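In this supplementary section we document a worked example of the pipeline. Step one takes a protein sequence of length 144 as its only input; no multiple sequence alignment statistics are reported here. Step two produces a three-dimensional model, which step three serialises into structure tokens for compact storage. The input and output of this example are shown verbatim.
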Amino acid sequence: MHHVLDNIENAKKIHFPIQKYVCHGCTLGKMHQYSFSEKSTCSSKPLELIHSDLLEFPTLSYSKYKWIIIFLDNHSSFCNITFLCKKSEATDAIKSIFWMWSNTTSHPVKRLHTGNRREYIISELQSFLREQEIIHKTSTLHVY
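The serialised model returned by step three reads:
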């Protein structure tokens, strides 16, 4: 920017401050007041903690899919996305993904964190999670 006058005809002179001013509030905002604490919810092994969410497409896809269920392994950040035609297929999708992952990695799924949707709380899924000894935690509802 200092060479603008050399390269452009009839350019107005730009004043560049010589002394650098740093806002005191900006400096305080970038300082760490407390160190981050160790989170007990993080996982140390694959499939120890799985996050899942069920989303609805705004329109029906070309292949007639209306829903998508997402699985994310907290340890490896491995993600699996499964397309569903109906919401009621969510339980079968969870069962098949958990079965596939535990057979291919030789690690069982230990915890599942989901939203507070009905699809995750139905009795068929809850009995499957109890049989597999998977701890199921749901997020809190949004309060507006």
